[in-house]
Automatic annotation (TrEMBL):
This is Aldolase/citrate lyase family protein. The keyword Manganese does not apply. Belongs to the HpcH/HpaI aldolase family. Residues 22-214 form the HpcH/HpaI aldolase/citrate lyase domain. One of its GO terms (molecular function) is metal ion binding. The keyword Lyase applies. One of its GO terms (cellular component) is cytoplasm. InterPro entries: Aldolase/citrate-lyase_domain, HpcH-HpaI_aldolase, Pyrv/PenolPyrv_kinase-like_dom, Pyrv_kinase-like_dom_sf. Keywords: Lyase, Metal-binding.
Amino acid sequence: MTAPRRSLFRAALARPDGPALGTWVKLPVVESVELIALAGFDFVVIDLEHSPIDLETAYRLIGTASHLGVAPIVRIPALDAGVVQRVLDSGAEGIMLPHVDTVAEAEAAVRAVRFPPLGTRGVGATSRAGAWGALDRAEYLRFGQEEVVFIAQVESADAARSAKEIASVDGVDALLVGAADLSTSESTTEGDPRVVELIALAIAGCTAAGKPIGNAGGATEQSVRAAVEAGYTFTMLSNDASLLGAAAAAAVRAGRSVGRPAGEHR
């Protein structure tokens, strides 16, 4: 008998050697996910909020990540039960939703993500999520209820203050702090003491609820160390486009640093 399939994302959260490491996917090409997998990331968040990626492209990115052993999470731009259904049927291991400010909004999202009785997600067992009908129906339903994750983004002062209550909603598996939107909503910067205090409040509340919490940070050891020290259990290291841009810029700087041999002319 085949052992039940486990969530790659949940497995990454349980690793003993440090935080789960992910990055955003904003480029609509499967090669980006291939390179991320080769680099050793634990998960990707395919970004449908701040990129031109459409559902068909997301479908291909999800499949590539899954086959390469990287957990595919999809951030949708707003709550749409139809989009949630299609993304999960495509094999995504989870849904991330921005701007979840209240318990009621979290509960509405859970209803879209989960099968009855917790939610209203329809059964699509002949999709990729159900191995095109080859997966036992009970196992398909179990994975959707127990392994698929829902991550609510904390991006306002109200959400930060309600983090414990939002994280405690049955069916909410983790929170992710969006410091950029949080600080912008307060008309200030991420380093403002008020924002730092709100983020600390969100981390404490989520931790008290017994749920993981993550952030979107930079691709440096210092950034990851700061995330761990702050109490985050998973962290996003930049995004595919920025990582490519930084590597390209570093290559050009290295090349430009080498001058022509003395006396050589064009």
